[in-house]
Model the fold of this input.
Amino acid sequence: MTALSNAPTSSAEPVPAVGFAGLGRMGLPLARRLLQSGIPVVVYNRTQSKAESLVPAGGRWVASPRDLAKSIGKGVTFLMLTDEKAVRTVLFGRGGFARAASEGALVVDLSTIDPEESRANAAKLRERGVHYLDAPVGGSVDAATRGELGLFIGGEAADVSRARPLLERLGRRVDHMGPVGAGTSSKLVNNLLTVGITALSTEALTLADAFHLDRAQILDVLQAGGGRSGMLESKGPSFLARQYPAQFTTALARKDLRLIERAASREGRVLKMTREVRKLYDEAIAQGHADEDFASVLEVALVRGHAATPKPLPASPPPSGPTDGEGPTPN
Ligand SMILES: NC(=O)c1ccc[n+]([C@@H]2O[C@H](COP(=O)([O-])OP(=O)(O)OC[C@H]3O[C@@H](n4cnc5c(N)ncnc54)[C@H](OP(=O)(O)O)[C@@H]3O)[C@@H](O)[C@H]2O)c1
Done:
C-alpha cells in the first residue's frame, strides 16, 4: 500500500495516518469524517481543547505543527485555518510544519487564502521536497458534516490523484481547476457570488418589509421564481428568526471580500459592485456582528433601508421656469 492509498480498512495492512491542522468550525467536522471512515488522524490545533472530542474517535493530538510533520512523514496533511497569516505560522513559524517535513509529504490547504499566497507557500515547500495542493471548499459547516462540500483544487495532476481518495471522503465534488493557485482563485470567484447574493437578498427583504409583505411568504415565493438561490435557501431561516448562529462568520466573509478586491486589483480589474458589498460587511463588523453568521448583514440592510426613507415631497410643484440653463427644450 502506498502512503496515500488509504484503502478501506478491510486491507490487512494498517491504514497510514493523515494529519489535520486547524479544528475550527470547518476543520473539526472534516477531521471527524476522516476518522469515521476508518482513517487514523493525527491532529493539531492551537487551542488544544477543540481537539478533545476527536480523541475518543481515535484522533491523536500533537502539540505543534512540527510534531505533526514528524508523525505523518511522507503522508498527507490537511490545513483548515483562518487566513494566510495562520497558514504561514503553521507551515513556516517556529515549531512549524516545514521544520520537520519529510521529502515527498503532501500538504493540502483547505483554507481560503490569496492565490498568490498559495503559490508562494507551494514554492517554499517545494524547496524542501514537499508537495502542495490548494483545495478550498464551497459549502459550510452542515455540508462539511455531511460530506457534501465542493472542493476547488489547484496543483499537479499527480498530487490530485494521490489526494483524491481522501478528498472524496470530504466532499461530493472534487474539481481540479488548474495549477497551484487555481483552487483559491476559483474559491474567490465562488465567494464573490455567495457573499454578494446574500447582501442583495438582504436589500430585497428590506424592500419586501417596506411593502408590508410577509417575510416567510415572500421567501417561499422567491424560491419558486427566477430570483431563487442557494444562499436564500440556506440563510432564509436566519433571515426569518433574525438570529445568526455562526456557520461562516461575517469576519471571514469580509476577509474573503478583501482577498477578492486585492486579487482583482492585481489583475487590473475593477469590481465596483463588490466594493459596495464589502462596505455592507464593513458596516456589519463595525456594528458588532463580526462573530455572528454573515447573514447578520440583514441587520445593517434593514437599518440602512430606514435611513434612506425620503422626506415627504413638497406640497406645491417646483417653479416651472428655467433656473439653471437646462430649461425645457424649445419645440
Ligand atoms: N465556516 C465556513 O462556513 C467556511 C466555509 C468555507 C470556507 N471556509 C474557510 O475555511 C477556513 C476556516 O474557517 P472556519 O470557519 O473553520 O474558521 P474558525 O472556526 O475560526 O477556525 C479557524 C482555525 O484556524 C486556527 N488558527 C487561526 N489563527 C491561527 C494561528 N495564528 N496559528 C494557528 N492556528 C490558527 C484556529 O485555531 P484556534 O482554535 O486555536 O483559534 C482554528 O483552528 C477559513 O479560511 C474560511 O474562510 C469557512
In short: Residues 22-27, 45-47, 50, 80-83, 85-86, 89-90, 111-112, 137, 140-141, 247-248, 252 surround NAP (CB under 6 Å). Confidence is low (pLDDT under 50) at residues 1-10, 321-331. The chain is about 45% helix and 10% strand.
